[in-house]
Amino acid sequence: MTEEQYLAAYDPRAYPAVAVTVDVVALTIREGVLHLLLVRRAEQPFMDYWALPGGFVRPGEDLPAAAGRELAEETGLGGEELHRVHLEQLASYGAPDRDPRMRVVSVAYLAFAPDLPEPSAGTDAGDAEWLPVAALASRRLAFDHERIVADGLERARAKLEYTPLATRFLGEEFTVAELRAVYETVWGHPLHAGNFHRKVLSVPGLVESTGATTEHGGPRGGPRARLYRAGDARLLHPALLRPATEETTR
Amino acid sequence: MTEEQYLAAYDPRAYPAVAVTVDVVALTIREGVLHLLLVRRAEQPFMDYWALPGGFVRPGEDLPAAAGRELAEETGLGGEELHRVHLEQLASYGAPDRDPRMRVVSVAYLAFAPDLPEPSAGTDAGDAEWLPVAALASRRLAFDHERIVADGLERARAKLEYTPLATRFLGEEFTVAELRAVYETVWGHPLHAGNFHRKVLSVPGLVESTGATTEHGGPRGGPRARLYRAGDARLLHPALLRPATEETTR
DNA sequence: CACGGTTACTCTCAGTCTGAGTAGTTCTCA
DNA sequence: TGAGAACTACTCAGACTGAGAGTAACCGTG
Known about the structure:
2 copies of one chain form a homodimer. By secondary structure, chain A is α+β, with helices and mostly antiparallel strands. Chain A contains 6 helices and 9 strands.
């Protein structure tokens, strides 16, 4: 049998029905606080629970495209604004009982976004909101989304160490202090301003100077800060390591 | 409609047919050379091409279980031997045209194994072999498996830096020199023996002493080496960084 | 048995990186 | 105008790293 004959005779229905979805862990920083995008489910199962934005992958649609589409639907973002959003695959979740309807394998994506506007409710979501991640502890999410969020947050924290993705939470131009605020927000503890400044400028390709400064000092005083834009590095050498994760190593 | 009523009326066939498979990038070290497990396809499509061991996820089967089953089928390993194999999810691949038969989303797993016996051909594979990864360049693999292997190798190299997984390529007890050989083999270049020794013993939880030594010196002389077993650390602090990846950072 | 070659392990030293603190300067707010 | 705050630069001690050398144990050979 040639490959052509084989394909003509092939019956996809012979295999068990599995659905593939994408779910997006979208993170942004609003007013100095790390936020996660959630939608309220308007359908069974888990109706009225908060959940990650996501949905079924369409026929012929690539996985990253599906993730981008779901993100755009919930946030109301157009193609241009999506351009500055970093989207990467996180992991896949396929426990047999994770969805009571049928076997569903979900490919989760992680998104880093600059401060985005208030979300617009999408087609299959009654409501959508940016929730501070600190408020997650008191909220039960649909399906296994709590685990997906936990994995996403850990990935995000780790990625700041060895990639320049922290700049993806900021606009085109930013100050060193703004970049430091991103690290402090995501990692959850303060950093030494002087050492951070030295480190950021010494790592090749992290930032490059624009030559300009802010037009005013900070709201509580201080001189004008120099402006930088993201550099061309994709990996940071040496990395910006977060201090002492001793308990988490065992 | 209650959730129960909803589920009773739910029709899974309403959604497009997608198949979910697992593929395993299984790595081991044989005679000082990094090897990858490949199987020769006995069916269309890509008949007679070499491919990663893998196959369809069975109904009710969890994803890691499917990966372990595929690995066991190809290697002939029993449950006990599989116990020392490290298995972790790598990534998922779901481009619409990656399989000419139908839409297939594959969840790839990465396996680190101590020196395993010659593979035994599985049910749906005509042949199986351990191939030195250096020989991969001259071999075209089925589907998008070349990209999956490349991602797996890069993940493996990175994981040696900040986890104790290098010990998973060795037996229960090993010497520092054997551990160094793992790093040199996976990273592909020699390391400074003295500095490596100092580093391995100074990182908390990487190895712990057994108190014993090898019974003889090396085949070409040298004193008996002290034996160690894997420690209890899951993350290495500080990490064992590989030298100078400067070109790869841009 | 003696010897050269090889290996395991230790030590030293210089260069680099990090954390912590200090200081000068510029700016905002009261 | 003065207090407070922030940006940036500098210093210093400690830790870590790469490179090299040294000691001792062990193998094979003559």
